[in-house]
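Retro notes, structure queue

What went well: the backlog is down to a handful. What didn't: a couple of records were mislabeled last round, so from now on we paste the full input next to the output in the thread. Example, using NERD domain-containing protein from Nitrosopumilus adriaticus:
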Amino acid sequence: MAKIYGRADTEKRLLDKLPKEVKSIDDMDIVKKEFKKQYHSIEDKGLINKFSRWRKKRQINKIQNNKDTPLHSGTKGELRALDTLSKLDDNHHIFCGVIMELPHYVTYNGKKNLKSAQMDFVVVSKRGIFPIEVKNWTDTYIFKHRANGGLEPHEQAERAGRVLWISLKSWRDPKQPMVTSVLLTLQGNMKYNPTYKFVVVKDLITINQWIEKRKEIFSEKDVQRIVDRIKDHVTK
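Corresponding output:
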């Protein structure tokens, strides 16, 4: 099993919106059921009881209102992706929710407009460095996202790859490490886009095999140096 650092960024953001009793996305229904049981066990009379019922109802609504949202869907998608990626052997390192910020803006697509990036996952091994953008988007959501002027997923992946490559450059080997951006489509509804020719598009069925078949380009020492440069940038 691959070595995992940090936690999925979307899961942390989702859990921050929920009662502290919810420790993972799988707890949502269990905790909601328990809260309902507690709510109905409180007698509906007296000021203190009414306040306790109000607080419990508020917690129940927090869970209900955060189910079946884009963030909830994104969390489920990232956790599915992490479950698949974790099946890579222990020569692979998986970094979750990586955030990189450059000291100054750099040029992207002819404009000096790129300074930071958030990566769902970064996989590192002797076979390379793979920042992975996970998308669990339906066709309807893709249409709405484009209509609202949102960044293309391919562009998100490409921008992240550029920020990561610049962040990892060093005077020590590997001085300019190979970075390959990956768009991981969980619903299989996104294809390779020649406009973003350096962004590879994969799904859950093909991603691990594709990584495992890559030619080894780094030594063990190279990998450790890359790991040391990334590990402090994960979501915790």
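Agreed that this is the format going forward. Reviewer comment attached to the example: The first helix runs from residue 9 to 15.
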